[in-house]
Write a structure and sequence with these properties.
V-type proton ATPase subunit C; alpha+beta; Alpha-Beta Plaits; proton-transporting ATPase activity, rotational mechanism; ATPase_V1-cplx_csu; Vac_ATP_synth_c_sf; hydrogen ion transport; 38% helix; 4-stranded antiparallel β-sheet
C-alpha cells in the first residue's frame, strides 16, 4: 500500500490559497485569572456610577490574602474616594474583583497607590451597547465554528492521505540516501516494512542483528563512533539502516 502510494505521489499546491485572508478578530477569554480574563460577563449596570460628571467606578483585582488590606486601605489610597463604595463582585481561587467609586481627578493617583499595594486596576468602561455587540460577536463566532467544523473534518480526511504519503516519501528518500552513505555504490539493498507485535519486537531485533551483523563488524568489536552527518545516537545504530514510522496519529507508541 505504501509502495503504491509512493509511486503515484505527486506534490500539489496547498489546498488553501496562500493569499487567503486570516481572521484577525480577537475574542476576549472568558476563562482564566481575573488578571487577564474578560470582565464583561461578571459585572452589571448596578455595579457602576454612570452618567456622572465627577464620579467614576473602577474595577480592582485583589489577591485573596490581601482582602483585609484592601478593606482597610482603599479609602486612604487617595483623596476623594467615596467611603464604603467598595463591594466584592466576583472571586476565583486566587483573586477577588472589587468595585470602588472615586472622583475622576484622582484616578491616576489611586492607580499608582494600588500598584504599590499589589492591587491591580483593570481597564474597563461599562457600555451596554458595546457589551451587547461583544456578546453577539461571540455568539456569531460560535455559530460559524459549528458550521465550519464539518467542512474542516472533510478537508482533513481528504488531505491527510496526501500529507501522510508525502511523509512516507521523505522516509523512503532518507532510507535510500543513508543506505548509500553507509554501504556505498553500486546500490545493492532493499527497503522493507516490518510491523511486529509488541511481544515479538525484541526477538525480531535479535534476528535482524544476527542476519546482518556482517554488514558492519564494528558493532561486534565495541562502541561505534557516530557517523558524521547521520545524526544517529548509539542506541539507534544497527548494522542495517532503520527508521521508526508512527502509523497511529492518536497513539505515538504504535510504530513500524
Amino acid at each position: 500500500m505504501v509502495e503504491c502510494a509512493l509511486r503515484s505521489f505527486v506534490l500539489s499546491q496547498p489546498a488553501l490559497p496562500p493569499g487567503a485572508p486570516l481572521r484577525s478578530s480577537f475574542v476576549p477569554g472568558v476563562r482564566g485569572s481575573l488578571l487577564v480574563r474578560s470582565l464583561a460577563d461578571l459585572v452589571c449596570k448596578d455595579h457602576f456610577v454612570l452618567g456622572s460628571e465627577y464620579l467614576t467606578t473602577l474595577l480592582v483585582v485583589v489577591p485573596k490574602i490581601l482582602y483585609k488590606d484592601w478593606y482597610s486601605k482603599y479609602e486612604k489610597l487617595s483623596d476623594m474616594v467615596v467611603p464604603y463604595s467598595s463591594q466584592l463582585v466576583f472571586e476565583d481561587n486566587e483573586h477577588g474583583l472589587f468595585t470602588v467609586t472615586l472622583f475622576y481627578k484622582v484616578v491616576d493617583e489611586f492607580k499608582l497607590h494600588c500598584r504599590e499595594n499589589k492591587f491591580v486596576v483593570r481597564e474597563f468602561v461599562y457600555d451596554e451597547n458595546a457589551l451587547l455587540a461583544g456578546k453577539n460577536e461571540i455568539a456569531k463566532l460560535e455559530s460559524d465554528k459549528k458550521k465550519q467544523y464539518g467542512l474542516l473534518i472533510r478537508w482533513l480526511k481528504v488531505n491527510f492521505s496526501e500529507a501522510f504519503t508525502a511523509w512516507i516519501h521523505v522516509k523512503a528518500l532518507r532510507l535510500f540516501v543513508e543506505s548509500v552513505l553507509r554501504y556505498g555504490l553500486p546500490v545493492n539493498f532493499q527497503g522493507m516494512l516490518l510491523q511486529p507485535q509488541k511481544k515479538t519486537a525484541k526477538r525480531l531485533r535479535e534476528v535482524l542483528n544476527q542476519l546482518y551483523s556482517h554488514l558492519d563488524t564494528s558493532i561486534a568489536q565495541g562502541p561505534v563512533d557516530e557517523i558524521p552527518g547521520l545524526n544517529m545516537g548509539q542506541q539507534e545504530y544497527y548494522p542495517y539502516v532503520y527508521f521508526k514510522i508512527c502509523i497511529d496519529m492518536a497513539d505515538t507508541h504504535v510504530r513500524l
